[in-house]
Specification:
This protein is α/β, with parallel strands linked by helices and about 220 residues long. The protein contains ten helices and five strands, in the order E-H-E-H-E-H-E-H-E-H-H-H-H-H-H. It has a five-stranded parallel β-sheet with strand order 2-1-3-4-5, with helices on both faces.
């Protein structure tokens, strides 16, 4: 049985989640409305093993909260629980220290697996997020490898790769680089081929592992 804290600004959903977590055999220490509320309660003591953390919250959202937890309570594991299934949200939460990412409409069985994996393995992987990506991002701070020079990238490809690690859309990246969206598609497809990846998440993983982009 693990000590778990729920952080979500929707009371009804949070209460329902609390019932599910308890039915799975875990203890809900307390609930928080947002990041600021969580911070205040943590400072009073009673530290959980895991925080189920929503992203879209007022005052202090999930991104900022995950980053704060990573800095001040690195032993607390974070499992992101969100309605967002886009790559940008996933990448940003994992970069900020989340050990897993699960959608709110997931089956309770998946929630059980996610909680167990984060607690026992240190990360949770699913079809949505690969365990390899989570492990790579969260172990970067322990590695001292330099940039991989085996794969030669052009200056423009490197610039695009850095922008790909932000929340910008491909069209916005094209504007930033003052090139056409078609050119951006070319950079992306060329990097997919060079780096042997298939998604933007794969591009981010490579950029982080090779220190092209720092956390």
């Amino acid at each position: 049985m693990a000590k778990i804290v729920l952080t979500d600004d929707h009371t009804l959903l949070r209460n329902g989640l609390a019932s599910v977590v308890q039915a799975l055999g875990h203890q809900v220490l307390y609930e928080a409305d947002n990041g600021n509320d969580l911070v205040a309660k943590l400072k009073k003591g009673n530290i959980p093993e895991l925080v189920l953390l929503d992203i879209n919250m007022p005052e202090m959202d999930g991104y900022e909260t995950a980053r704060w937890l990573r800095t001040h309570y690195p032993d607390i594991k974070v499992l992101a629980l969100s309605m967002y299934d886009n790559e940008n949200a996933i990448i940003r939460m994992l970069k900020n220290g989340a050990k897993g990412y699960i959608l709110k409409d997931s089956d309770p069985k998946e929630l059980r697996t996610a909680i167990d994996d984060v607690l026992n393995k240190g990360f949770y992987y699913s079809e949505l997020v690969s365990g390899k990506l989570i492990h790579a991002i969260n172990s970067l701070g322990e590695e001292n490898s330099s940039i991989n020079t085996v794969i030669n990238l052009t200056d423009k490809e490197t610039e695009f790769l850095k922008y790909a690690c932000t929340e910008l859309t491909y069209k916005e990246i094209a504007d930033k680089m003052t090139v056409s969206p078609r050119t951006i598609d070319h950079y992306r497809d060329t990097l997919f081929e060079k780096l042997k990846v298939k998604t933007r998440v794969g591009l981010v993983m490579y950029a982080l592992k090779t220190r092209i982009v720092e956390l």
